[in-house]
Write a structure and sequence with these properties.
Layout: H1 21-44, H2 55-77
């Protein structure tokens, strides 16, 4: 428990071997991709920085931030830049 929320962690324990090391690496890589998504959507797309308070404008802002993230991912796949950091986009 952390801040009254249940947290789950994946730990590689070679002596217990509940799954193989490759499985651990795959889970870790998937987790890292989720962390990168959260960082980008917050720091690059500014999903938390909105100036409105009513429901529809907030929904519009969230939609626009997610759309911006999708566009950035598309640009990254097209290799227009290497990483989704603010300094790399200029």
């Amino acid at each position: 428990m952390l801040k009254d929320q249940r947290r789950h962690y994946v730990v590689y324990l070679p002596e217990e071997v509940p799954f193989e090391r490759d499985d651990f690496s795959k889970i870790h890589d998937q987790h890292w991709q989720i962390e990168q998504y959260h960082r980008a959507i917050k720091q690059v797309c500014h999903i938390e920085h909105f100036q409105v308070r009513s429901e529809q404008p907030v929904r519009n802002h969230i939609f626009a931030a997610v759309l911006a993230f999708v566009y950035l991912q598309k640009m990254q796949i097209a290799q227009e830049f290497m990483n989704c950091r603010s300094s790399d986009l200029t």
